[in-house]
Structures are given as C-alpha cells and as structure tokens.
Predict the 3D structure of the following.
Amino acid sequence: MLHTKIVDYKKDKILTSNAEKFIKDSMFGASIYFLGTVRSINDNKKVIGITYDSHDEMVIKSFEKIYNEADQKLDIKDKAVFIEHAKGHLKLGEISIIIAVACKHRDQAYVLSRYIIEEIKKRSPIWKKEHYENKKVNG
Amino acid sequence: MKIKLELFGASRDFSDKDHLELDIKDKASIDDLRNEIIKYIDKNFQGNEDFIKVVKSSAFCSENNEIISDNYKITKNQKIGIIPPIGGG
C-alpha cells in the first residue's frame, strides 16, 4: 500500500496526521515516521529557508520504483508506505519530506524507512536552494 | 524544428520563464541540444561558466518522463526536460 505526493507549499503543507491515517492498521505492529526538516545551519552558514524544486512526474515514478524494489530486495511484503515531498519555499523547521512506514515487525520498519530515504536522496529529481542570512544562495 | 526545454533545479537561472524555446536541426541528438543551450548561454549570459557546467553535467528527459541517452534523436517538435545533478531531500 503506497501513497505518494509532491506538496506545493504555496497551497498546502505536509501533515503527519495524514500519514498516520494512511498507515494505521491493526495488522502492523511497528510504525516509523521519518521527517526531514529545514535546519538553521549548514556548512557554518546561517540558513533562513530552502526552496525545493522537482520534476514531479519523475519524482512520483521514482517513489513507486523504490517502493516496488523494496518488495524484491528487502522481501517485506506486508507494508504501508506514505511518502510526501515539499515543493516551493520552506521556512526553518518546516517539513520537507515525510516517509511513514508500517510493517508487521520493527526490524522491517527500520530497514524499509532507511532504504526509502537513502534511495530518494540518490535518485529522485529534487533540487534545493538554500537561502542564507547574507542573501546569498547555494543551489 | 522548435523544441521546448523545461528547466529544473539550477537550470532555472537560465530564464525568467520555466522553459526555453530553442531552434534545433532535424534529428538533432541530445549532444546537439546541449551545444545549442551552451550557445544560448554564450549569447545571453556571456558564457557564464557555472551555467555551462550545469548543462554539461545534466541529463535530459523525454515527454514520457524517461531519461534519454546522449545519442537519442529528436525527430519532432517536443518537450524535453533538463535534469541537473540531484541534490534534494
């Protein structure tokens, strides 16, 4: 069971409550919520926000591919996975990505959550531009 | 032949719009397209080295949202996306 979405921050926000509704099921005994958030310091520079850009169709395709690969590589058949990534300008502390997974056992949930975030970082066409206090940007 | 090049990531700095319109020869390859973009940068941004670096390190995707190889031939007016190296999450 998979949910994927690119969330345009001009109109919407990523909400953990949506993820909770999606993955909640009494057949699963372990749930993990991974959140990526905008932090205030990077490379000793004071960050004031990040703008995310994405090729939406390719990103969704990559999420589906990663989910299907998890079936084969990790052999975790019963699972619920909720993935949303932000697009647009985010302020400090706002959620850029949520990966919520539910599996029968905790070992599976930890492995699956980690696998998904690492593969997204490597493969999904998402770009970020950091905004610093001194107005410079790094994309 | 006219193509619409959709801009993403660092390549968005190439224009105020979200795409470029480029004239390329029939059956141009992705390598030819890359050279056309570099010509555009030479003309409009005095050969900005950072921009050229982005073009050289980018992949391209088709209308079907598939990454296409450098020897892919563009045979009709179509939409192509430039995919700079990834750095999100």
Remarks:
- The interface with chain B takes residues 36, 52-55, 57-58, 61, 85, 96-97, 117, 120-128, 139 of chain A (CB under 8 Å).
- The two ends of chain A are 34 Å apart (CA to CA).
- The mean pLDDT of chain A is 94.
